[in-house]
């Protein structure tokens, strides 16, 4: 739009939720790198299974132009810690009062149930209101099975979740919380 004296007005880019969780993911990746460096745990980000259909070549190398998801991915991270299989999903919400259940797909809920059935350690790491919480898989499943809401209230997360503190190294020391929850008898 043209204004008097040839001034123009620029508009901000539309609000997008793309890559909203990248900061949390980067923090968890740094933490997992640290845990591997000190030989505390072997936990990795799982790659998304993608099939490539079109590739172009640039001066910087191959560029994927088109692709598709081969199969639904399960959870974000998995590995071994203290002789136990561990798996978790990391999510960020800008919603200040609740965590939308639409952020977790039905096949992921089934996967969480399967890991629990096989006695693995499974949980969600949720960033809400600039705080990071670990919500145990069984508390998450119990909430879904006993509530008709389409979201988990922040109060529930505060009550049943465990706060993960930021630190220098690792960035998010979630294994301290895992020790507190799953290995408390061994710590005594």
Describe the structure.
By secondary structure, the protein is of the alpha+beta class. It has a single domain, classed as Trna Endonuclease, Chain: A, domain 1, CATH 3.40.1350.10. Helices cover 31% and strands 31% of the residues. It is built from six helices and ten strands, in the order H-E-E-E-E-E-E-H-E-E-H-E-H-E-H-H. The protein has a six-stranded mixed β-sheet, sandwiched between helices. A two-stranded antiparallel sheet has the order 2-3. The longest helix has 16 residues.
The share of residues in helices is 25-40%
The CATH architecture can be named as 3-Layer(aba) Sandwich
Alpha-carbon distance between the termini?
69 Å
Write out the strand line-up for the largest beta sheet, numbering strands in chain order.
Answer: 1-4-5-7-8-10
Share of β-strand residues = 25-35%
Order of helices and strands: HEEEEEEHEEHEHEHH
CATH class: Alpha Beta
Q: Would you give the CATH topology?
A: Trna Endonuclease, Chain: A, domain 1
- What is the domain total for the residues? 1
Specify the oligomeric state. Answer: single chain
Shape: globular
Structural class: alpha+beta
Rg result: 20 Å
């Amino acid at each position: 739009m043209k204004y008097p004296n040839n001034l123009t007005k620029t508009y901000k880019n539309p609000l997008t939720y793309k890559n909203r969780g990248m900061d949390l993911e980067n923090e968890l990746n740094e933490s997992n790198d640290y845990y591997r460096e000190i030989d505390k745990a072997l936990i990795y980000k799982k790659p998304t299974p993608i099939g490539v259909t079109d590739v172009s070549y640039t001066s910087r190398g191959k560029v994927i132009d088109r692709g598709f998801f081969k199969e639904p991915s399960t959870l974000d991270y998995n590995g071994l810690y203290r002789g136990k299989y561990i798996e978790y999903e990391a999510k960020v919400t800008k919603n200040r009062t609740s965590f939308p259940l639409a952020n977790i797909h039905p096949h992921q809920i089934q996967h969480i149930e399967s890991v629990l059935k096989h006695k693995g350690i499974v949980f969600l790491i949720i960033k809400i209101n600039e705080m990071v919480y670990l919500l145990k898989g069984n508390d998450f499943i119990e909430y879904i099975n006993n509530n008709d809401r389409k979201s988990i209230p922040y109060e529930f997360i505060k009550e049943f979740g465990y706060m993960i503190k930021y630190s220098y190294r690792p960035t998010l020391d979630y294994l301290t919380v895992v020790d507190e929850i799953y290995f408390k008898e061994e710590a005594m």
